[in-house]
């Protein structure tokens, strides 16, 4: 194992999870598509880098160096940084300029780096300074809650403004995640196709490869090896 970490949920309406980890050595892994935004803080050899990570529209490779301490803040869907153009942050990790020691620049102000335990206080300060906002329409639409006569065009605009991707794209990612979870649980490929409404097995395979980085057959092999190891 090249990374060890701890993760917790958050009671902030803006934050999904907070993760704190350490890299023991260099490594890389396949990472899935991700519709949520993140702020990431990396301490390495006495220096700290703050990054903003926008939506990741397809699966890819995540790599890291050794001896780093990392704090990940995963925002709830619909949370965004209003003064940064959303489209500029798709599929990239964007460094934020450093200020003095243990601070970084955002929206013209120097911000103290958060810790694993005080993330919510840090987020509250960003919200009070209008450096972080959340569009409730995004989460409501994804939960199929009634919306007040929003046109499809308006809904699409709200999703693109807050997440950088469309409502339909997020649904596709979520469906692929559900499919992957079912396959890991041992549900057959054809049953997953039927349960989640894929056209056929090739359609499922294409979606999983695009959004998780693995085919159904590869997931079955991973599950089989884990069963043998257990």
Question: Could you characterize what this model shows?
Answer:
- The chain has helices at 119-128, 136-142, 152-163, 167-184, 189-196, 201-211, 216-229, and strands at 3-9, 15-23, 27-31, 38-44, 47-53, 60-64, 68-75, 79-80, 93-96, 103-106, 109-112, 133-134.
- The protein is α+β, with helices and mostly antiparallel strands.
- The protein has a 6-stranded antiparallel sheet with strand order 1-2-7-4-5-9, with helices on one face. A two-stranded antiparallel ribbon has the order 3-6. Strands 8-12 form a two-stranded antiparallel sheet.
- α4 packs antiparallel against α5 and α4 (167-184) packs across α6 (201-211).
- The protein is globular.
**Total count of strands:** 12
Which blocks of ≥5 consecutive residues have pLDDT under 50?
none
Total helix count?
A: 7
Please list the strands of the largest sheet in the order they lie side by side: 1-2-7-4-5-9
First-last Cα distance: 17 Å
Q: Can you summarize the main beta sheet? A: 6 strands, antiparallel
In helices, the fraction of residues equals 25-40%
SSE order in H/E notation?
A: EEEEEEEEEEEHEHHHHHH
How much strand? Answer: 25-35%
Task: Indicate the overall shape.
Answer: globular
Using only C-alpha atoms, the radius of gyration works out to 19 Å
Structural class: alpha+beta
What is the residue-mean pLDDT, rounded to a whole number?
Answer: 91
